[in-house]
Amino acid sequence: MRATVTAHKDYTISKIDDRVYGAFLEHLGRAIYTGIYEPGHATADKNGMRGDVAQLVRELKVPMVRYPGGNFVSAYNWEDGVGPRAERPTRLDLAWHTSDSNAVGVHEFADWCELVDTEMMLAINLGSRGLDDARNFLEYVNGPTGSYWGDLRKKNGHADPFNVKLWCLGNEMDGPWQVGHKTAHEYGRLANEVAKTMRAFDKKLELIVCGSSNADMPTYPDWEREVLEHTYDNVDHISLHMYFANRENERALAEGGTAEALAKNTANYLALNEKLDRYIATVASTINFVKAKKRSKHNVYISFDEWNVWYHSNKQDRKILDGNDGWPHAPRLLEDIYNFEDVLQVGLILNTFIRRSDVVKLACIAQLVNVIAPIMTDPKGQAWRQTIYYPYYFASVFGRGTALQLDVNSPGYDAVHGDNIGYVDVSGVHNEEDGTISFFAVNRHASEAIDVDLSLEGFGAATVIDHQVMTHENLRAVNTATAQTNVAPAKGSGAKVDGKTLSVKLQPYSYQMIRVKV
């Protein structure tokens, strides 16, 4: 089986905003406690932050991290997380039916962000609280000393403002599960007034208004239209969320499904990024509609600030989420153990973001540690890379530059989410500063290798400088504390440039990164 791809230096999509490789940490399960923060751990620093986790995060070069939620933020009092730890209250979290000690708050999170060389993206509670609390939180975080909130921050140990630029105006306010759920009109009016107030403090802030929680919401995409009609000229981004699952295979495995049925389910699962692409396109069109309706010169972009595979842990979480286990502190919740099939899915999602970099400027993998995360830890024990760590790592580190408009000709298949979906899914990023092109490719075919000829037009002489391959005979293979490299990249062989053609073989069910110097 063969496929052809053409990359031309002058045919580009957009400069990629590095912040599309952002991440998310919520006060949920063990994301914070025994995730990033575990005093007494062998690697913990003086602030109680795990050094082994910090090192894995630094390797990812995460540009920003969204905090503290998520559903958690819609009933969160930010004041609970400042001041002396001994005086901070323990609160019950209604979103995840747990308790939170508030041992980590905005100060501790800011110190951790400095430790791992990332920026803060803060979310405001617009569920149970409103404009005045949002204004006070902003002034506490960014205000000067000599003011009430600035002086309180100084008293609590940080005289200089934190200078946070990215602010989420609530979380998933379209969701009936959300504390303080609102209609589009109710939320749009509130978000606009909050945005205006925050702009009065600092016109240079980047504000993110809530879009749909997923593309299957009954209010989508009219929610986006109505919210943007209220807020358009006062915000910079609208958020989208999407999670990816192969529950059909989970059921088939439990029921002893045939190999043919499992392969069909995997094919449908690996076509989900077609649904993702339509989701982005629909909201981009809605943004353009509202912009035209308002005769605005302002641009609004998409912040895809929650995305990942999430389904492996659903059954085991029910005991806690249904309230049958009291109010535990930092229990094991949403701890998906990712397999090799999920490597392919995450690679496909990231390829989609690269190809839609004209409109998707911010994105956050949800989440970063323990909770549906690329990094796992054991309390008092090890930290390790889950299978999905690697495609995220390759895209974040090497996917910076300008997205190329590739012409792809590949054999395809029909799936639930679209027809004639190419077996080869590929994105390309030209980094003009270091003279490289990075290609990220997935072969969706279960049994056939695909020979790809990639024509490099307008770049001049090229040589292969790196080739990484991820493949495994078992789609359900995972990494664990005792088998940390069971699913890991290996150096590829056979990728070569002859004249202006880059040739590479994509093994069945494989993820590959090929980098060339030009």
The largest pleated sheet is described as:
8 strands, parallel, barrel
Number of DSSP helices?
A: 12
Radius of gyration: 23 Å
Q: Please give the number of β-strands.
A: 26
* Spans of at least 5 consecutive residues with low confidence: none
* Average pLDDT figure: 97
> What structural class is derived from the secondary structure elements?
alpha/beta
Spatial order of strands in the largest sheet: 3-4-7-8-9-10-11-12
C-alpha termini separation: 28 Å
Specify the overall morphology. globular
Beta percentage is 25-35%
* Helix amount: 25-40%
Task: Describe the fold and architecture.
There is one protein chain. The protein is an alpha/beta fold. It is 28% helix and 26% strand. It has twelve helices and 26 strands. The protein has helices spanning 51-60, 106-116, 131-142, 148-155, 184-201, 222-231, 247-254, 259-269, 272-293, 314-321, 340-355, 389-398, and strands at residues 2-8, 12-15, 22-24, 64-67, 91-93, 98-100, 119-124, 166-169, 206-210, 237-244, 301-309, 360-366, 375-377, 383-385, 402-404, 407-409, 412-415, 418-422, 424-431, 436-443, 450-457, 463-471, 490-491, 496-498, 501-506, 510-517. The strands form six sheets. It has an eight-stranded parallel barrel with strand order 3-4-7-8-9-10-11-12, surrounded by five helices. Strands 2-15-19-20-26-22-23 form a seven-stranded antiparallel beta sheet, with helices on one face. A five-stranded mixed beta sheet has the order 16-1-21-25-24, with no helix packed on it. A hairpin with a 2-residue loop joins β17 (412-415) and β18. α6 runs parallel beside α9 and α7 packs antiparallel against α8 (259-269). The longest helix has 22 residues, at 272-293. The two termini are 28 Å apart. 49% of the residues are buried. The mean pLDDT is 97.
